[in-house]
Amino acid sequence: MNQAKGMREFIREEDGMGTVEIILIIVVLVGLVIIFKNQITQIVSNLFQKITSQTGTV
Predict the structure, then answer these.
(1) How far apart are CA 21 and CA 3, in angstroms?
(2) Cα angle at 41 between 52 and 23, to 5 degrees?
(3) Is residue 5 scored above 90 in pLDDT?
(4) pLDDT tens digit string along 6-35?
């Protein structure tokens, strides 16, 4: 009986860890976006300029 109770507590803890891991992943992704914001903006801007310039040739 005591072993089954310990197993249930372990399963409950794992659910909590899943939520914490997801939150940490989101925080890391947001941090990366903030750090590389200028580079991402420049890449997207260049991409749209190429698309716009090549649209006239089609």
Answers:
(1) 27
(2) 130
(3) no
(4) 767 766 665 566 788 889 999 999 999 999
Q: What is the pLDDT of residue 55?
A: 84
Q: Report residue 11 CA to chain centroid gap.
A: 25
40: which residues sit within 8 A by CB, 6+ positions away? 33
Rounded to 10 deg, the angle between the 2-35 and 37-55 helix axes is 60
CA distance 44 to 52: 12
pLDDT of amino acid 49: 93
CA distance 25 to 1: 37
Q: What is the CA radius of gyration of the chain?
A: 23
Q: Which residue has the tokens 């992704």?
A: 29
